[in-house]
Input
Amino acid sequence: MITINTNSDSQIDEDIFLKNATKIAENVIKSDILEHSPIKNYDFINNDIEFDVMFCDNDAIHEINRDYRGKDKETDVITFALFADSEPQMRMISEEGIALGEIIISVEKIKSQAVENQKNFEEELYFILAHGILHLFGFTHQDDEKLEFMMGLQQRLVENVKV
Output
């Protein structure tokens, strides 16, 4: 289950977004991508997954980035991968499923990046969403090699998304 929260005038069709977000998450679980995840040994097939997506503006994500990550600038996406970032003995699976965490997306930043990257808004949105979902599954990019690997996975995840 994916929950959407908005504190900006996102103008995103939530039904289409939920469909595409679900498809991206399912593609992680049902493909070889999961085999590269540090949390690959959990039963994601027989447990529902849950995460939140919050849409905001540049000011809000700047504040979150500063307060929680110590980076005094706006960014496109911040992921709080609560399940993957927890110690294994602290990870809980409830009857409702596995609560992975939260993805925060600046709609304003996505719009400007879409222009910079010569994409339409939806292409950039789902590419960045795929990045956040990969973080929820424990993927990181501490160096250029891991970033390149993650970007390739993101591209694979959005290939079948209708925009």
User: Anything to note?
Assistant: The mean pLDDT is 91. The first helix runs from residue 14 to 29.
